Amino acid sequence: MARMVAVEVVEVAEQLRDGYDVVVVGGGAAGLSGALMLARVRRSVVVIDAGAPRNAPAAGVHGLLGRDGIRPAELLKRGRAEVHRYGGQVVAGEVATAARDTQGFTVALADGGSVRARRLLVATGLVDQLPDVPCVRERWGRDVVHCPYCHGWEVRDQAIGVLASGPMSVHQALLFRQLSDDITYFSHTMPPTDEQAEQLAARGVRVVDGAVASLEIVEDRLVGVRLGDGTVVDREALAVAPRMVARAGFLADLGLQPTEHPSGLGEHIPADPTGQTQAAGVWVAGNVTDLAAQVGAAAAAAAAAAAQINADLVAEETRRAVTASQDPLLAESQARPS
Q1: Hey, which residues does 145 pair with through a beta bridge?
Q2: Residues 6+ positions from 79 with CB-CB distance below 8 Å
Q3: Coil, strand, or helix at residue 311?
Q4: Residues 6+ positions from 168 with CB-CB distance below 8 Å
Q5: Across-strand partners of 284?
């Protein structure tokens, strides 16, 4: 059994300092990974965590090398401990707004507190907007899943349904076909095109027309999908493609708003390959910008963004040092104790 590491999440009102080199918004795998990288190069960093991880309903995190199957809460607990080990902070709180000031940013919290930052790393993830079908939300992350790489092994060889709810649903059905010979595609609100129907038929995927009314649950497990006409199709698992929307409303005052992702899967905050946004001093990482990123990819992207943030701060500090060295009065004022 993995050793449980006790981690104290400090109270916002009592523990937040006035300013930090970097405020990380979001305490999932991405946010903690970015904070760890920054703390290890001796940057003052705080993670503000609203405590609502997207993968909370899942039994385990999969595809994460060296930690495959670890419970999401345990992974975050270990991550917080690692950030704390290097002097970083993790506080409980929800960011309401972020605004630019003369020295960086002021981050306002929902409880009325605030904190200043020279740079921002946003790793708030996304919200899964699920189809309005009874029991889908309740079974989410259990026997209602979305990703063959995250959950496919756990439902292999089962009778799997695919609820057509987005532009990638046919693709999703073909991916799950790799994991089971028994796949049923429920057209629901998005019947396949003629070309897509040909693809599904060629792969032995059964297509069922008509709207889905609800899921059939017996003894806390999925046993079937009920259509609008009352017909029940036996299924043991259901794949659903949610619409994914970045959690980023608090960035509006900085001119950053979620925009439609090119894939059609939802809305994200655009950024360059390093995670830098159009707003100077603001980086994003993880699902808030890359809707399809798994835990490992999100954490890696945040670590890379953190390195870019540190390099940006070093460049700024070097420019100031050069200016000070050329101005004896400025250098003397900076040398005096504050």
Answers
A1: 239
A2: 29, 32, 33, 36
A3: helix
A4: 241, 263, 264, 265
A5: 122
Dihedral over alpha carbons 67, 70, 76, 82 (to 10 degrees): -40
pLDDT, tens only, 102-111: 889 999 999 9
Contact call for residues 49 and 119 (beta carbons, < 8 A): no
Q: What is the pLDDT of residues 231-285, one digit of tens each?
A: 999 999 999 999 999 999 999 999 999 999 998 899 999 999 999 999 999 999 9
The whole-angstrom separation of Cα 50 and Cα 53 is 8
The DSSP code for 8 is -
Give 62-91 as a 3 state SS string: CCCCCCCCECHHHHHHHHHHHHHHCCCEEE
Tokens of 56: 């909370």
Q: What is the secondary structure of 174-224 as a DSSP string? A: HHHHTT-S-EEEE-TT-PPPHHHHHHHHHTT-EEE-S-EEEEEEETTEEEE
Angle among Cα 26, 30, 34 to the nearest 5 degrees reads 90
d(CA 248, CA 284) in angstroms, rounded, equals 10
For 65, counting Cβ atoms within 10 Å of its Cβ (0-12 exposed, 13-18 middle, 19+ buried), the class is exposed
**21-37 b/e (C-beta count within 10 Å ≥ 16 → b):** bbbbbbbbbbbbbbbbb
Could you tell me the domains of the chain?
A: 10-128+243-333 (3.50.50.60), 131-240 (3.50.50.60)
